[in-house]
Design a protein that fits this description.
Thrombin, subunit H, 3 domains, 263 residues, 2 helices, 6-stranded antiparallel beta barrel, alpha+beta, 6-stranded antiparallel barrel
Length: 263
């Protein structure tokens, strides 16, 4: 029985090799396709897997390379934006300084120009700090202005700096007049961003938007400076004076450089 089995397997092997040889000579045939089909499927699967892995690696390398390239471009754009911003800021600063220099040549009461280096963070006290002081000839009650209008007056002086009491401070009062009617009053700080124009008779026709200028009668602020505009009016029947609200001509939250004028 063992010999028969050996002979049987030998015959089978011989037939398989014979068929393979015949296929190699004549070409592929249907009969031979059957025994080697699983091997071909396995070979195709391995080939597809290798190709997918290769494509995945190439895609990863490509994506990583693009990310690095994109980051470099973003860094360059950020650098350009910083440079553009520097030029814009330099242009704005030059424009402000030109106006201040123009004031220096136009006003005989010019003392010095200064930069604002700090301000009350809460706006409760309505004050700011400038970088010029006693060493620069600054004294108490000198007037602080911009090319747009008055900011306030020097309140406290140090060797290299000073406190400025803004016109919106509740302790500030400026002698003024309505530019159109020439009616005089007192501009007092409201404690926020605005002011009150006091002692204006209710018989005076006051309109919103009307200009308010300094009269010079307080002995501190020089006359003729545009200091505020009327923002609102209210007349009560039993009152002698009407209530007039005003907003400074100069936005005090945007002040960066100022000019100090002597009294």
């Amino acid at each position: 029985m063992l010999k028969k089995k050996i002979i049987f397997f030998a015959v089978i092997i011989f037939l398989v090799f014979g068929l393979l040889t015949y296929q190699s000579i004549k070409g592929e045939g249907r009969f031979i396709d059957f025994p080697i089909h699983p091997l071909r499927l396995l070979e195709k699967g391995m080939s597809s897997l290798k190709k997918s892995a290769k494509n995945l690696i190439n895609s990863y390398v490509l994506i990583v390379g693009k990310e690095k390239e994109n980051q470099k471009l973003l860094d360059k754009i950020s650098g350009f934006e910083q440079e553009i911003n520097k030029y814009i800021e330099a242009g704005k600063e030059n424009e402000r300084l030109r106006k201040i220099l123009k004031m220096k040549s136009a006003r005989p009461d010019y003392i010095a120009s200064a930069e604002v280096f700090a301000r009350d963070p809460t706006n409760w006290f309505q004050m700011l700090w400038i970088n010029k002081g006693a060493k620069d000839g600054i004294t108490r009650d000198m007037v602080v202005v911009t090319p747009v209008g008055p900011v306030g007056r020097i309140y406290r002086v140090f060797d290299e700096g000073a406190h400025v009491l803004l016109i919106t401070n509740v302790n500030s009062s400026v002698a003024v007049r309505l530019q159109s009617s020439r009616v005089e009053g007192i501009l007092e700080g409201r404690g926020d961003s605005g002011c009150y124009l006091k002692y204006i008779s209710k018989d005076v026709d006051v309109k919103a938007g009307e200009s308010i200028i300094t009269s010079g009668l307080d002995g501190i602020y020089p006359p003729g400076l545009l200091i505020a505009h009327v923002s609102d009016t209210e007349i009560e029947g039993s009152e002698i004076f009407q209530q007039v609200e005003a907003m400074p001509a100069q936005d005090l939250n945007t002040v960066e450089e100022v000019v100090i004028l002597k009294k």
